[in-house]
User: Fold these one by one.
Assistant:
Number 1:
Amino acid sequence: MSLILGIESSCDETAAAVVRDGYEVLSSAVASQIAKHAAHGGVVPELAAREHLTALNPLLEEALRTAGVTMQEVDAVAVTQGPGLIPALLVGLNFAKGLALGYGKPLIAVNHFIAHIYAAFLESGHGVLENPESYPLLALVVSGGHTSLLLIAANGEARQLGCTLDDAAGEALDKAAKLLGLGYPGGPVMQKTAEGGDAGRFEFPRPLTGGAGKALAPEHRYDFSFSGVKTALLYHVRREAERNGGVFPESLLKDTVASYQEAVVDVLVRKTLQAARDFQVRGIVVSGGVACNAVLRERFRQQTPEGIRLHLAERRHCTDNAAMVAGCGWHFFRRGEFAGPDIDSFARLPQITRVPFV
Ligand code: KG4
Ligand code: ZN
């Protein structure tokens, strides 16, 4: 039996968690800084770093208390190394280094993007990842920072099929919410506003899907682009406001948001299912903050073909958390792959050639 402590601080959530043997979440403490950043309409890196600095210790205590374990009983400390905001990452990384050094525990460096994929296997994934029949696996990671499709083979080799060429899906929702004056973060408030709205009333563009008489370049078959949808929204708002004498009635807002959300969801689902068919995958993983979205979840549940298993991360494991870091870290632990005390953080996603959990 192994207990891994996870630490996460890549963006605006500070988190600590204890996971047993890679899958069983004994505790997952998360402190959101949303209220602190909301006034700025987005995450301010230095502010995030300072918040992590004060939040980490109480969260560690909470995670240990809830799990009913002591620091002495923990077998290793896993921490998010990147990608993310450097000032924010450094705080968590230094904290984890201090814990590892002080308590004489091995340190494990985890890639945040890979941890998001792993989140779909927490609690339920035992036996799935070890089974060669589960592969190939196709992972859609949709968050505020990423929109990527990763193909994972039974031997752990991985290949990024595509990613966003501009904004991430979560960013597209966040920016739209800002433009409409709905607040930050955009995803949850867009979902709420869209409820009861007519998602078919307005046709927002579906970039890189080959529609509207535009041929799709083969190299962009699995890529995404969301900045054009955001621009289309800007023009739509101006046009409709003008048409309505400067006002934007509630029903118009609801239909606008529902139609916009539909455009984002439609592209994500369509491209994922296309790749699933092309590569004859056995499973589809959907994870990252945007995977909390009710419409996206429902669409995948309805449209994933028979014979393909859907691994939809639990909502609480979709947005940033440390359970996914601890769980993913366990796979390094059992192989004895540890990080040195001099490791540094990284901001951008490196090329992924394999995943550690297979
Ligand atoms: O994974 P995450 O917590 O952080 C990153 O690694 O980026 O994802 C945050 C993103 C934000 O863009 C937020 O608007 C979006 O996830 N999000 C949602 C929902 N809840 C969070 N998007 C759509 N619908 C939601 N319910
Ligand atoms: Zn994330």
Number 2:
Amino acid sequence: MTKHIGILTAGGDSPGLNAAIRGVGRSAQDHYNMQVIGFLDGFRGLVDNRSIRLEGGMLAGILTRGGTILGTGRDKPHRMMFGGKKQDMTDVIVENYNNHHLDALVCIGGGGTQKNALLLMEKGINVITLPKTIDNDVGMTDTTFGFDTALGIATEAIDRLHSTAHSHHRIIVVEIMGHRAGWLALGSGIAGGADVILLPEIPYDLDAVALAIRDRVRSGKKFSIVAVAEGALPEDRAVRVKAAEEARDKAKDDKARKKAKNELIRLQAEHINHTSTLSRQLEELTGLESRVTILGYLQRGGTPSAADRLLATRLGTACTDLIAQEHYGVMVAARGENAEPVPLIKVAGNKKLVPPDHSWVISARNVGTSFGD
Ligand code: F6P
């Protein structure tokens, strides 16, 4: 019996998505004679029933393209804005899945997508996922596609910032994506030789950062590069965030939960312009001029690296092998040279953060990088 499979891409776009769509689509059709359709704009396309047939021609020439030919979105199936209010659309998704006579649904996404896929699995859909995100923060997989490309882009940016910081004897504070996980700031900071790296996982002391920069000046280096992850926090705010998160998770009633959530919203508001504030504070504390560069969406755009194309193709074809074996409810994880199925129940909500004693952190410290702690 010919199998019918659906594919969607969800969450932030990430280089390698098209390589993964091609990997799944080509191997499904050419190797297993399956029929493949793509749903547009993430889970919303599955609700609205917007799909395209992913036949041969559609999959040609996309290996090297950034973004996703299917479009993406951050909608959650169980809390989707629909008709002006947030609604649980999972039953509609199940209905459309059945109407298309699908045997499996491939969801390509990051941490949020793994959770959403688990919900759909619990509703009876044969789900299988692939891990993508430039943040590299999906648990139970060695890495995610998109990370290597973003790492290259951020590293090149830091390289370029070096020469201008050096020429002007300035501090340059470069903001790198990653709200909760600092892998990208850490990796690019090390590869680009940043003098200070600030991560969400290692709260920083402003005075320690300023001291590291002044020490460099004393040793004759009048410029510094500070690589700061979006979610890096000064120690005092990190303590307040942790307390509010704990209060939210332990809240016994709606009132306590709301209070904790409001505190988290206040803390998020305080974090806006964090990088500019940090730059200004460092000017005051060091007497050097400081400038800010926010890399933003440049890190996600454009053609995927060779490593990401290879990883996405490997995981995509392994995904089709698993569908052929009717092995569902799993994420196709990268494990060394292999691709291995990991139950979604173990992946959903399992965020991979940088352990403060991770070997990359130790290496960086050993070459004199400050983490501001
Ligand atoms: O999840 C990937 C990511 O690029 C994060 O690094 C970043 O914080 C976030 O997405 C930005 O989200 P959005 O695309 O919704 O602005």
Number 3:
Amino acid sequence: MTDRADPAAPEEPAAPGAPAEEALTVASAVAGTSTTEAVAAANPLRDPRDKRLPRVAGPCVMVLFGVTGDLAKRKLLPAIYDLGNRGLLPPGFSLVGFARRDWKDQDFAQLTYEAVKAHARTPFREEVWKQLREGIHFVPGEFSDDGAFDALAMALAEIDETRGTGGNYAFYLSVPPKFFPVVVEQLKRTGLSDAPEGSWRRVVIEKPFGHDLKSAHELNEITTSAFPESSIFRIDHYLGKETVQNIMALRFANNLYEPIWNRSFVDHVQITMAEDIGIGGRAGYYDGIGAARDVIQNHLLQLLALVAMEDPTSFEAASLRREKEKVLKAVRLPANLALNTARGQYAAGWQGGEKVVGYLQEEGISPDSTTETYAAIKLEIANRRWAGVPFYLRTGKRLGRRVTEVAVVFQRAPHLPFSADDTEILGQNALVIRVQPDEGITVRFGSKVPGTAMEVRDVSMDFAYGESFLESSPEAYERLLLDVMIGDPPLFPHQREVELSWKILDPIEEFWATQGQPEPYESGSWGPTSADAMMARDGRVWRRL
Ligand code: NAP
């Protein structure tokens, strides 16, 4: 046992500024009276007509495989605490950690405590932590160890007895992808994947869902041999982001944009996810995978689907997925992949005032690796709405800054009744959905410059989440973990979407595999020159971000 302080009794005082009532108990939330929701209700920008109660999870256990990993510490454990703090967890909620270390419950509680302190979005409240702490358990073991999974089954049965969790278990596989099949097989062998009458069992799989169409299919075969499709939750955390869900609100809750959301008005669409960091300590995962498989196959193609799909008949999973599938099926690759795709690999450079090494010099990367850290592709959508409108997708590491956005760029006005001099610097209208950071929407349009001439130039109209709603958006993982516990699937991609996305990407990967080394680009720049050339051939430029 360690000599660390028991996190059940942290010595630090409660966060300054905590509300006087303090008792933000998990149980109180069930009645819809959590302090956080009360604070939200007091928000002057909240519509007083909104009387809906928050969605709250029913009794259950969350079993986290891979609790000592990066994702668990930075995102999952803090998100669970945040849900508790918002009063959205049920009384008796239990959290079971599984990893190789020879740990006791207390060690896992300590890890959780530290992760919460370091990364939780909401303020630390001792009362909430105490409630969560009571339900924390740890089961040590290797994924290949039958005995460890038998012990897990026993531990879960005991938790059901003592905490009233009713045999409802969510198994979250936050583990290296090669272990997905191993863990699923173990859950099947122990019978943990079979829900007794009146209870549920769900499995949560993190991306990547395979590394190509074939492996995605194989992974699905194994997973569906243990769990029914309705119990499989594939996490693409982008779908949990408020700004991504807002694409649907923007398009389908308004009448303003939909009439012009088509080939008659849209010139092209740019979807960008730029990171300013390198691969960090994730060489083992990233090398051989690369930017396109890591980001385009999932996040960017999901964004494309939401931007381009027809309106679903409802927000039910089946309707939403059907529309996304239809549009992914209609995606076409350009005939000439050499001219309409680009890939690069970051070289040394400067980032945030610091000198950084190139990809090939990163620890754990082979000096002749051909893995791309930047990828750009041009796609078209063969349907009535989008025929002839290019969708440009790009992603990369060690770029100028961290930003994810969707830019819908409109055609120029057919006629400008002004002198050419007065409109010389006028660009194209654009609607930009800023997914992160600075979440919001910007509309760019032409406006008269004050003065005596009829000079027109671009200005912006801005909607910023923080200003309009006065509260920080929940983290994507808060929303998605809650949806898993509630059993609400619309924000999780179906296997058919996963396979359609691999069908788009596989031919590009096969082509790139014949092309040798990707083009180097300087760290801190905006990517390889071939990506700019690709746009220039179409008479367009990437947006400057
Ligand atoms: P990670 O840091 O490598 O953590 C892996 C976890 O699995 C550790 O807890 C490790 O426990 C455990 N583990 C490994 N081999 C094991 C074995 N044989 N038996 C028992 N436990 C074992 O991985 P991660 O970055 O957290 O990623 C987890 C998953 O999320 C991956 O599928 C990844 O692709 C996906 N993902 C991650 C991120 C991210 O930001 N990190 C983002 C999106 C998706 P030990 O302590 O015993 O080593």
